[in-house]
Amino acid sequence: MMKSKKWVAMVSAAALSAGALAGCSSGEPAKQGADNTPAGAAAPQPPINMTGFPIAKEPITIKMMGAKGPLHGEWKDMLVFKEYEKMTGIKVEFETVPQNGFVEKRNVKMAGGDLPDAFYRAQFTPADEVNYGSQGILIPLNGLIDKYAPNLKAVMEKYPEVRQSITAPDGNIYTLPQLNDQLAPRLSRKIFINKKWLDKLGLPVPATTEEYYNTLKAFRDNDMTGSGKKDALPWSGDKTFDILSNIRGSWGLGTTGATGDSFIDKGPDGKLRFFAIDPKYKELLEYLNKLYKEGLIDKDVFTQEVPQFSAKLTQGITGSFSASNVNQAGAKYMDDYVPLPALKGPYGDQLFSTVVPFTQTQGTFAITNKNKYPEATMRWVDYFYGDEGVKFLRMGMEGVTYEKTPDGSDIQYKEEIRANPKLSLDQAAAQFSPWPGGGIPQFVQMKYDKTGNTLPSSLESAKVLGPYVPKEIWPKFLFTKDEQDQLNSLNNDINTYVQEQQIKFVTGAVPFSNWDQYVASIKKMGVDKMLTIYGAAYDRYVKAKK
């Protein structure tokens, strides 16, 4: 009861500052042996228990640095971490940095050698992993996983793509990921359509790109809002212009999912291709150009930020939009929308490509060469890849942050979290756990995810789109240092040019008669070299599965 009262007080304090929330160990490096454990160590020092709690037989302290999300309370005050310290015998001293300035501060520490024992919510890119791993700043985790991470090891054995996605070119694993077994949150952003408007017009949910075009025209040409005017926005979105990636699968593009490089996938011949110079990509842009010219795409889309876009959605004037879920339309209108299926394109292609892999986020946790207790640290983090630890991380403590549902069939957050009048669910949960905002070492499981990912509309999206996601979904590949050095220039030049030109083609600023010139420019920039590098990384990725 006392814990519950203390926690409620904490949430109440957070509610008072909801506006602010919305805005916003030393020691010598441990030398590594062949099995990635300290060389010459016959047993972990200090002694640790191989199973159960506590982890450390004698209390130890570990220093961790991480990116504090804008919704997070102080990590040291979070119920989950305070209770976990009691369970494990491991005190974690957190150094948190606001996430918008974290990478810069982390990199300064990496360069200066003033390192924590581990990084949590680490935001390491694949390039960072290879760079700092090859320098010995981040230690290899392979042997530690085998001996001290039974939960993660079991997941990797069940899902081989996890090991593939986190293995560096030298065969080592330097960071741990966030995993997600749900399809709904991995579908990224998708298209929703106003079912209420469809019913008003007596139209079915579109099933093809041509039907979608005609439906948007009907939204444009009728008084959909009841204002007596033709003031509807047929399709809207923010400046990420997600409709392009949402429907590229209707032209057989994006065959390996949304992660990795945005414009590299596998062609019909099974070979890697840069699909932004494929003739079908031109046809996709021509289709979007037609929508844009005919006023079916919000003219503000290439400049408006999320708040501007969201404001339009909450006015009830939008027929179709791209977003993660319908929450963005606000409570008044969100139930008017249903997910658009994977549209069948002009050649019969029907693919939904904006889906990320089971390894949802790479580079979330790493152990540095300053850590005197790598074995204990690995056991500490492994808990959150098992069922018991996931439940603890996501739900907290029974009677304090969650309770059984009235019929006893499930569990739910306590009312002050799930129905707080001043805090969103994420804001309230971020006072007891760091999971809101993602990017942490965890295995998210549907039964413990009580967020928008499990809304009826999100689950319906997974049901509707699931049969049409790619069979092979790539993670972000890890490149050698030499490969990465070459890609830094190639990616910047080529991808920037493609993104600039696609807007110009869609808006008509550049005519399609310039297509051959566009393709020639990309080839001149070195796209073949880029494909060769990605091919080598892909070959290593496939080999890592064996």
Overall description:
This is Extracellular solute-binding protein. InterPro entries: Bact_solute-bd_prot1, SBP. Helices cover 40% and strands 12% of the residues. The chain is of the alpha/beta class. It folds into three domains: 2-37 and 44-183 and 360-444, D-Maltodextrin-Binding Protein, domain 2 (3-Layer(aba) Sandwich), CATH 3.40.190; 186-357 and 454-468, Periplasmic binding protein-like II (D-Maltodextrin-Binding Protein, domain 2), CATH 3.40.190.10; 481-544. A six-stranded mixed sheet has the order 2-1-3-11-4-14. Helix 3 (79-88) links the parallel strand 1 and strand 2. It is globular, with a radius of gyration of 25 Å.
List keywords for this structure.
546 residues; alpha/beta; D-Maltodextrin-Binding Protein, domain 2; 3 domains; six-stranded mixed β-sheet; 22 helices; 40% helix; globular; palmitate; membrane
Number of helices: 22
Helix content: 40-55%
- How many individual β-strands? 14
- Mind telling me which CATH architecture of the largest domain this is? 3-Layer(aba) Sandwich
Topology readout:
Elements: H1 2-16, H2 18-22, E1 60-68, H3 79-88, E2 90-98, H4 99-112, E3 118-120, H5 126-134, H6 142-148, H7 150-158, H8 160-166, E4 176-180, E5 190-194, H9 195-201, H10 209-221, E6 233-236, H11 242-247, E7 264-266, E8 272-274, H12 279-293, H13 306-313, E9 318-323, H14 330-333, E10 337-339, E11 359-367, H15 374-382, H16 387-395, E12 402-404, E13 411-413, H17 415-418, H18 425-429, E14 442-444, H19 456-465, H20 481-507, H21 515-524, H22 527-544
Parallel strand pairs: 1-2, 1-3, 4-14, 6-9
Antiparallel strand pairs: 3-11, 4-11, 5-9, 5-10, 7-8, 12-13
